[in-house]
């Protein structure tokens, strides 16, 4: 039986329509939007994900925050 692996750096490459699973909260999410912002202070880009939870709750998280989640 194969177990899902955490996303790691692949979290930066998610796109609308991707499905994710948070193993700590035991909750699934659907990515419905991706926003990329220029972080002028640190000279890098930040990726934020618009997510819908299974119960309809909408959240916005930085891609780094979901790097331990799994892709469904």
Draw up the topology in text.
Layout: E1 19-22, E2 27-39, E3 44-53, E4 58-62, E5 70-71
Give structural notes.
The protein is mainly beta and 72 residues long. It has no helices and 5 strands. Strands 4-3-2-1-5 form a 5-stranded antiparallel sheet, with no helix packed on it.
Regions with little confidence, pLDDT below 50 for 5+ residues? none
What is the tally of beta strands?
5
Structural class: mainly beta
Average pLDDT value?
A: 90
Largest sheet descriptor: 5 strands, antiparallel
| First and last CA, distance | 15 Å
- Rg from alpha-carbon coordinates: 13 Å
Supply the number of helical segments: 0
Overall shape: globular
Order of helices and strands: EEEEE
Helix content: under 10%
Strand order in the sheet with the most strands: 4-3-2-1-5
- In terms of DSSP E residues, the strand content is over 45%
